[in-house]
Amino acid sequence: MTVKLDDYFDRETFNRMQAVAEQHETPFLVVDLKTIERAYDELVEGFPFARVYYAVKANPANEVLGLLKDKGANFDIASIYELEKVMALGVKPEQISFGNTIKKSRHIRTFYEKGVRLYATDSEADLRNIAKAAPGSKVYVRILTEGSTTADWPLSRKFGCQTDMAMDLLVLARELGLEPHGVSFHVGSQQRDIGAWDAAIAKVKVIFERLKEEDGISLKMINMGGGFPANYLTKTNTMQTYAEEITRFLQEDFGDDLPEIILEPGRSLIANAGILFSEVVLVSRKSHTALERWVFTDVGKFSGLVETMDESIKFPIWTDKKGELEEVVLAGPTCDSADIMYESYKYGLPLNLAIGDRLCWLSTGAYTTSYSSIEFNGFPPLEAFYV
């Protein structure tokens, strides 16, 4: 199994990134900003009625944030540290949503003092904290969704609440002097089943109708989260197909009078723009009769490839070495037995792959630098270059 480079990057873009790569010692990430710009334009074209809130956690580099700010994006923020970062670039508070449902009361107060008035919640305790620290603000409640079986990186259980609790929280929000503004959901990251949005939107429709009929609350917003896919090994539909189908789901439930729609993309905007350049450190076998080689690289789970945990995200791997292929186990360089990226899923790499050869991990622009550890085994954080 090998990948075709042309399926992921045009030669001009790759050559530009390769020119940067030749100047540095691995491992490091190279990100093409033009690819991000195209992805953003495609998303906006597909959802002209929606507001885009970039999920900063996907890649918080100033180069990325500045590009998206100039394109007119808003920002989904998870902490006061991300808040400080985006506001230092001139992002206005009305362009920010505090999208984390797990937050300290004093951090809510900081957001409020900075002018932010849009907050996510999924519990009574958090809602009461918002009412005290950010009085009069808009809140939206995150609901649980059923997308864990078809998303490569599920986001279930930890975030969100059941439908009946969501309605109770929105009623309580009004009683506490907050504005019950809307409902949010996330169908799971790298969600390949577009139908997951249909089921989630149907749940939201019930909440909208029941709150209006029973409690006189008219919600105004649906936050559909992220989930749109990147170009990994497993095939997905195009962004255009996602947009067409999800728009149809919205219109079937809400007609032409859509509420405000928010999208929180991260992976789909950034991942395809990155190449993680690594070097083969060691090639070995565990016995004289072993049928597979172990290939150890200078990048692993602790230096940006956390999403290989449970072999969830299967990154395309390219090398310029040619020849007969053999299945390998891919592992990182650290003194931790958890630092094995792929053992069950068999990657085929050339038999003549040798120590010192480079491997290119494609579609690695998202959730690599932001997941990289600080100093495990003394290794520095993953370095990144933006072109």
Please tell me the CATH architecture of the largest domain by its name: Alpha-Beta Barrel
Radius of gyration based on Cα positions: 22 Å
Please describe the biggest sheet, giving its number of strands, its sense, and whether it closes into a barrel: 8 strands, mixed
- CATH C-level class of the largest domain: Alpha Beta
Strand percentage: 15-25%
- Which runs of at least 5 residues are low in confidence (pLDDT < 50)? none
Q: Which superfamily, in CATH terms, is the homologous superfamily of the largest domain?
A: Alanine racemase
> How many domains, in number, for the residues?
2
CATH topology of the largest domain: TIM Barrel
The total count of helices amounts to 10
What is the ordering of alpha helices and beta strands?
Answer: HEHEHEHEHEHEEHEEHEHEHEEEEEEE
The N- to C-terminal Cα distance equals 30 Å
Properties at a glance:
single chain, 387 residues, TIM Barrel, 8-stranded parallel β-sheet, alpha/beta, Lyase, Ornithine Decarboxylase, Chain A, domain 1, 2 domains, 30% helix
Walkthrough of the structure:
The protein is of the alpha/beta class and 387 residues long. It folds into two domains: 5-9 and 271-386, Lyase, Ornithine Decarboxylase, Chain A, domain 1 (Beta Barrel); 34-269, Alanine racemase (TIM Barrel, Alpha-Beta Barrel). It is 30% helix and 23% strand. The chain has helices at 11-21, 33-46, 62-71, 80-88, 105-113, 124-133, 163-175, 195-215, 239-254, 267-270, and strands at 28-31, 50-55, 74-77, 96-98, 118-121, 138-142, 151-153, 179-184, 189-191, 221-223, 260-263, 274-284, 293-297, 317-318, 325-331, 340-350, 358-362, 383-386. The strands form three sheets. Strands 1, 12, 13, 14, 15, 16, 17 and 18 form an eight-stranded mixed β-sheet that branches. The protein has an eight-stranded parallel β-sheet with strand order 4-3-2-11-10-8-6-5. It has a two-stranded antiparallel ribbon with strand order 7-9. The two termini are 30 Å apart.
